[in-house]
Input
Amino acid sequence: MGFLDYFRNARRKQKATGSAQQAKERLQIIVAREGGRRQTPDFIPSMKRELLEVVRKYVTVEQDQVNVKVEREGDYEVLELNITLPDEDERAT
Amino acid sequence: MAKIIVVTSGKGGVGKTTTAASFAVGLAQRGHKTVAVDFDVGLRNLDLIMGCERRVVYDFVNVINGEANLNQALIKDKRVENLYVLPASQTRDKEALTKEGVAKTLEELSKTFDFIVCDSPAGIEHGALMAMYYADEALIVTNPEVSSVRDSDRILGILASKSRRAEEVEEPVREHLIITRYAPERVSEGEMLGMDDIIEILGVPLLGVIPESQAVLNSSNAGTPVILTEDSDAGQAYTDLVARFLGDEREHRFLTAEKKGFMRRWFGG
Output
């Protein structure tokens, strides 16, 4: 530890409010505003799986007859579950 | 089934192609059959960074249009086993990449490759969206600089809402942060955003930090991905990064400013 460190520390304190700090603060504000993506529910994939299991309990459907989509419009989030049910006569067999 | 990895950033000039090239080389060096696909139609550069620009005969768009098959378009790397490049077209426009065409090509590549590394163009236009759409994992390349960080945040939003995995409600695309052009001495001087700040702002786990290095320009001049320059800091950082991606434990290096000499320690500088 050099004796001149005393002066350098004084200088460093000044730097704590340097341009990097400014960059961080500015980014934190805009990223929080533009973001919102981290609020995206992560339970949806497992919910999709469980929904499929429930449907399969009652009707036999193939994977490709089920279509799940999440659409985002502004603040809304729409989960669309589209199931093509088999025909009446197919169901009888 | 191959794993599809997109290298993306939003902002241009942050090191996407450099990263895509070195990442693909690194995976191949570790014995995984890898193809690097250039999605930057109209402004292709991956071939140049990989040093195979003079061997391009057919390209991605030719394959999509059925004018050539994949085997005709794929360029086998001469330095590393298991490595191939699928170049972009230089003359067409971005719309030439149709969703169906890209899907079909990736599906075919999936049959024979372990990893498909998609080098995205800058921006959030069609080409960039196509590069991201089918991804399983994403490497987000960011410079410690405000506009780059903001653009990365934007890209993360798009990955979370517009990718195939998002639309089909599957497990989300796995995101990895790569910070490039990092200058530890400027960070310690408080002049550059530190890695912890960037990780905190973007909320994405860090895969690697590539130091600002002269080796990067030297390598691109020569058409040799920087990971092959084994004695360079950037090259070693990429080797570590690939190892981490494959599940190895590697400590992050090149993160602290070099020790100052006696004179500078005493009298500052």
Summary: Chain A is about 50% helix and 15% strand. Residues 19-34 of chain A form the longest helix (16 residues). Chain A has a mean pLDDT of 71. The beta strands of chain A are 66-73, 76-83.
